[in-house]
C-alpha cells in the first residue's frame, strides 16, 4: 500500500520504521534537510516531498504534526485523500474535516513505546477503515478500536500520556532507593527490571489480586502501600487522567 506520512517528527519516525517493510512510504515536511535526516534513519528507501501543494488525491495519509500546526499543514496539501489518519491529540474529526478533504477519517492515539514497536494505540473513525487501521497500527504495537471520539480522548489521557506518568513512578522509586542508600545506577537497574517483569504479571492477573499476592500480613509491602494511600497516590492518578482528558476538549 502507498502511504504518505506528513510531519517528520518522533511519532512519524516510529510509524515509518514499523510500516516501511510492508508499505511504500512518502514522507512530507517543510524542510528538505530534515526530511533527508529522517529518511537516513529508515532501513529502506522512502520518498520525500515538500509540503507545498502536495497532491493527496486518492492517497492514504497519516498526519503526524503537532495539533497547533493543523491549519498550516493543511494549506500545503491539495486534493482529496482516500483516508486521513491523524495522531493529533485533542483534535476531533470535525476539525480534521474542516482542514483536510478525505473520503474517510480515522484518529489514532499511539504512545512513545511506538519507538520500540510496543505502542498501545487507540483508534476510532470511519468503520469502513477499521481493519486497515488495525493492520497499519499493529506494526507499532497493540491496538484498540473504540466507537467514540470521547473514548479516544480518554484513552489519550490513559495510554497516550501514560508513559510520562509511569516515568514519574519509575523515577520516584529510584529516588526512594537512593535516599535509603542505593547507588543511582543500581536503583535504576532495579526499577528497569521491575517494569519489565510487571508487564507479563499485569496481563495474567487483575491489579488488586497482584497487590494481594505481594502483600504479606504486617510485612514490608503493607507498610509501603499504606504510605501511598495516605499520600493520595490513587486519587492523584485518577485526577491526572481527568485533567489530561479535559485538556483534549475544545476550550469553552
Ligand atoms: N510524543 C508522543 O508521545 C505522542 C504524540 N502524539 C501526537 O503526535 C503528533 C506529533 O508529535 P511528536 O512526533 O511527538 O512531535 P514532533 O515535534 O517530534 O513532530 C512534529 C513534526 O511536525 C513538524 N511540523 C510542525 N509544524 C509543522 C507545520 N506547520 N507544517 C508541517 N510540519 C510541521 C515538525 O517539524 C516535526 O517534524 C502530535 O500531534 C501529538 O499530539 C500522539 C501520541 C503520543
Ligand atoms: O502530551 C500530549 O499532548 C501528547 C498526546 C499524548 C502524549 N503526548
UniProtKB/TrEMBL annotation:
The keyword Oxidoreductase applies. Residues 2-84 form the Pyrroline-5-carboxylate reductase catalytic N-terminal domain. Keywords: Amino-acid biosynthesis, Cytoplasm, NADP, Oxidoreductase, Proline biosynthesis. SUPFAM superfamilies: 6-phosphogluconate dehydrogenase C-terminal domain-like, NAD(P)-binding Rossmann-fold domains. Pfam families: F420_oxidored, P5CR_dimer. Pathway: Amino-acid biosynthesis; L-proline biosynthesis; L-proline from L-glutamate 5-semialdehyde: step 1/1. It comes from the Bacteria. Its EC number is 1.5.1.2. The keyword Lipid metabolism does not apply. It is found in: Cytoplasm. InterPro entries: 6-PGluconate_DH-like_C_sf (IPR008927), NAD(P)-bd_dom_sf (IPR036291), P5C_Rdtase_cat_N (IPR028939), P5CR_dimer (IPR029036), Pyrroline-COOH_reductase (IPR000304). Its main location: cytoplasm. It is an enzyme of class 1 (oxidoreductase). It catalyses: L-proline + NAD(+) = (S)-1-pyrroline-5-carboxylate + NADH + 2 H(+); L-proline + NADP(+) = (S)-1-pyrroline-5-carboxylate + NADPH + 2 H(+). Residues 149-248 form the Pyrroline-5-carboxylate reductase dimerisation domain. Belongs to the pyrroline-5-carboxylate reductase family. Catalyzes the reduction of 1-pyrroline-5-carboxylate (PCA) to L-proline. This is Pyrroline-5-carboxylate reductase. It comes from Hydrogenimonas cancrithermarum.
Amino acid at each position: 500500500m502507498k502511504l504518505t506520512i506528513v510531519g517528520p517528527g518522533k511519532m512519524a519516525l516510529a510509524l515509518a520504521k514499523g510500516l516501511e517493510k510492508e508499505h511504500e512510504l512518502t514522507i512530507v515536511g517543510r524542510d528538505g534537510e530534515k526530511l533527508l535526516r529522517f529518511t537516513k534513519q529508515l532501513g529502506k528507501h522512502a520518498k520525500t516531498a515538500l509540503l507545498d501543494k502536495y497532491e493527496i488525491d486518492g492517497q492514504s495519509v497519516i498526519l503526524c504534526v503537532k495539533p497547533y500546526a493543523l491549519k498550516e499543514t493543511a494549506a500545503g496539501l491539495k486534493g482529496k485523500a482516500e483516508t486521513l489518519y491523524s495522531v493529533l491529540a485533542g483534535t476531533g474529526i470535525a476539525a480534521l474535516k474542516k482542514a483536510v478533504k478525505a473520503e474517510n477519517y480515522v484518529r489514532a492515539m499511539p504512545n512513545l513505546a511506538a519507538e520500540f514497536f510496543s505502542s498501545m494505540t487507540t483508534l476510532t473513525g470511519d468503520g469502513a477503515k477499521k481493519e486497515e487501521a488495525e493492520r497499519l497500527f499493529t506494526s507499532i504495537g497493540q491496538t484498540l478500536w473504540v466507537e467514540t471520539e470521547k473514548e479516544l480522548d480518554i484513552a489519550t489521557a490513559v495510554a497516550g500520556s501514560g508513559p510520562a506518568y509511569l516515568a514519574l513512578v519509575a523515577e520516584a522509586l529510584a529516588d526512594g532507593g537512593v535516599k535509603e542508600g542505593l547507588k543511582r545506577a543500581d536503583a535504576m537497574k532495579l526499577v528497569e527490571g521491575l517494569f519489565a517483569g510487571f508487564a507479563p504479571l499485569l496481563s495474567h492477573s487483575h491489579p488488586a489480586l497482584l497487590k494481594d499476592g505481594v502483600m504479606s500480613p504486617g510485612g514490608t509491602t503493607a507498610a509501603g502501600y499504606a504510605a501511598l494511600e495516605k499520600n493520595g497516590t490513587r486519587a492523584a492518578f485518577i485526577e491526572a487522567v481527568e485533567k489530561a482528558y479535559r485538556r483534549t476538549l475544545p476550550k469553552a
